[in-house]
Amino acid sequence: MSDLQERARALDTADALAPLRELFTLDDTVYLDGNSLGALPRHVPARMQEVLTREWGELRIRSWGESGWWTAPERIGDRIAPIVGAAAGQIVVGDSTSVNVFKAVVAATRLAPEGRDEILVDANTFPTDGYIAGSAARMTGHRIVPVAPAEVPDALGPRTAAVLLNHVDYRSGRLHDLPALTAAAHAAGAVAVWDLCHSAGALPVDLDRHGVDLAVGCTYKYLNGGPGSPAYLYVAARHQPVFDSPLPGWTSHADPFAMTPGYEAAEGAARGRVGTPDILSMLALESSLDVWDGVGVEAVRAKSLALTDFFLECVAEYVPVGRVTSVTPAAHAERGSQVALRCEDAEPVMAALIARGVVGDLRRPDVLRFGFTPLYVGFADAERAARLLANVLDGLADVLDGSAAPVA
Questions:
Q1: What amino acid positions are annotated as catalytic residues?
Q2: Which of 67, 213, 264, 324 has the fewest CB atoms nearer than 10 Å to its CB?
Q3: Rounded to an integer, what distance in angstroms lies between the CA atom of residue 93 and that of residue 230?
Q4: How far apart, in whole angstroms, are the C-alpha atoms of residue 300 and residue 252?
Q5: What is the pTM of this model?
Q6: pLDDT category of residue 183 using cuts at 50, 70 and 90
Q7: Where does residue 302 rank: exposed (0-12), middle (13-18), buried (19+ CB within 10 A)?
């Protein structure tokens, strides 16, 4: 056993979060793609069977009241709130991230002072955020200004209505300075909107403490809500009385069942609701959140940094020099919970890794992504992934120089 393998074993033994792995349905695969789809908590299937057979099968329409279906969007929002550093009553769950980005960006332009016609958008944003922001700008008469997050303070001005930024860059894993950038937006009189898809559940966000105005996030990554599980919208309490959603659906009405032709917005985060909640996926998410009971985000962050540090150390030890280059910042203050490695042959390398039981993903043309979910990924996983990466790269090098059979 190598020194790194021995260290991994010792680190796993000392890890206070290690027992949480047993709460998930996992096998011997090293699963490093939780930043795309989180693993299934073991207890969720039984909960969903109850929802299907009793709440839907037996109670049917009565479950909207008796089983709490109607209040699920706000109730589950309050379960997510501590994970992102928000007080209760500010998060509503429902719709997709894309839909919530649209709500947030349009609402932000309506919250901004009159006469402002620019929306600053992360130039490297996840594509949908950019597409949605562009459409919102066209509809509201604003102009999109793409800008690198580090350059936002210099780009802000009297014409800036809102700023839409990603907390963690989905390609590189770079963590952006939410407190400083939010403060800069406010100093310029603009509204700060944050996309938390790659940070919530992996590191502290502290929305309330840093004065964020609006935020959106998905729940199928680090929150393990399941494929396509509903997203969420955060509306700071100070903005709720005047939050003006561009999608005023019937469930966000002050009296939904009055069925009146005139719209009157509900109070609180419920203003962010639109249509009938997607109950099955929403209740699967609610059940999944049980794994967070008693777990502090600070402990998760500490393990995340330790895992990614250790993985990078193993890569440096095992992988031939020059075969990969980390594009994820080394500084803890600038790193999310993934490691992105630039690799010339990224696609066949990732395919070979998956065939060998190490599941990550890639971003074309040349980035290997490895997501570290601290609730169920261990240090032995990190060491094994780096060791097998080195083996794959060695085999691929042999193939390219004609001295070996192709890597499977």
A1: 126, 195, 220-221, 369
A2: 264
A3: 6
A4: 34
A5: 0.96
A6: very high
A7: middle
